[in-house]
Amino acid sequence: MQNENARKSKQAVLFFGALTFFAVATFISLYEGSQLDDISWEWPYSAVFTNWFSGGVTSADDILTIDYLVYSAKFEPLFPLIMFVSGMILFLQLSFWIFRGKKIVWSVFLLLCATALLVLSGALMASPTDGLELFSKFFLGTGILIVIFTASWLIKARKLPS
Q: Which of 3, 75, 87, 124 yields a CA-CA distance of 20 to 30 A from 162?
């Protein structure tokens, strides 16, 4: 019982620690990305979501908040990477809690997430900016780690008696 309580408290500390890092990194990334307001020649390239949803940017007031994160990831990638890592920790922990008793379902879910990361990596591989190229490498590495973890976990589960 005490071991179970210790495990739950470690999970809570990890979850709230990752949540704190995610919130702080998001705030700083948005601040760094707000430089996009002042660089009008970058709007067609970095205001991707505004261009998709609104058809274009005519003034800085038109730019959606998510485009600040895109700009920050392209040119100031440190805090967006911290967002990604802490977000992945939150995402994996939540998925573990949701699929707690369903190991096969969780494994399939993780493999789907890894596939999505690998596809995103491929999409960003030819990026002209160093920041998005770095993200591509992080997505590739994370996708590969998830595949390796899931495969080894499934192999161990098959060898253990039920």
A: 3
Contact (CB, 8 A) for 106 and 42: no
Residue with tokens 């976990």: 153
Which residues 6+ apart lie within 8 Å of 139 measured at CB?
117, 118, 120, 121, 124
Q: What is the pLDDT along the chain (162 residues), one digit of tens a residue?
A: 678 788 888 888 999 999 999 999 999 999 999 999 999 999 999 999 999 998 888 899 999 999 999 999 999 999 999 999 999 999 999 998 898 888 888 888 999 999 999 999 999 998 889 999 999 999 999 999 999 999 988 888 776 555
**Integer Cα distance of 127 and 139 in angstroms:** 14
Q: Are 29 and 83 in contact (CB under 8 A)?
A: yes
Give the integer Cα–Cα distance in Å for 86 and 21: 6
Query: Using CA atoms, how far apart are residues 24 and 85, in angstroms rounded to an integer?
Result: 13
The whole-model pTM stands at 0.86
- At position 33, the amino acid (one-letter code) is G
3-state secondary structure of 58: coil
